[in-house]
Design goal:
Layout lengths: L2 H24 L6 H12 L6 H22 L3 H44 L2
Helix pairs in contact: 2-3, 2-4, 3-4
Length: 121
């Protein structure tokens, strides 16, 4: 009979620990740093001045806000998914802004070449 109470206590202890771990995981705050840093990078890359990049920058901001609202409402999985979308859109805004800057540089280089050809026939 002595073994049974020890086993019961062990099972109860394991159940309590498992519940505590599950509760700890459920209350983990949403990590918004990747999205916010992506949005900041897009702004610094000049995404607001490039029409296509500006669109994705705005989407990233709205998705971040939606994710925060979803977390508040208890929709953790949907909030995490929305954060991934926000991060991806911010990265796309950065890429589009850099692409536009490279296009402008290439056009300026081509104009320089044209000018040199014209000056040196």
């Amino acid at each position: 009979m002595r073994h049974r109470p020890k086993i019961t206590i062990m099972v109860l202890a394991v159940a309590i620990v498992a519940t505590a771990i599950a509760a700890g995981c459920a209350s983990t705050p949403l990590r918004t740093e990747p999205s916010t840093s992506g949005i900041r990078a897009a702004k610094e890359a000049g995404a607001a001045e490039v029409p296509q990049a500006s669109l994705y920058l705005q989407l990233a901001k709205e998705e971040l806000e939606l994710a925060q609202n979803m977390e508040t409402n208890g929709d953790k999985e949907e909030a995490a998914s929305m954060l991934l979308r926000s991060e991806a859109d911010a990265e796309l805004a950065v890429a589009l802004a850099h692409g536009d800057a490279e296009k402008v540089e290439a056009e300026q280089a081509m104009e320089k070449v044209r000018q040199l050809r014209q000056d040196n026939p």
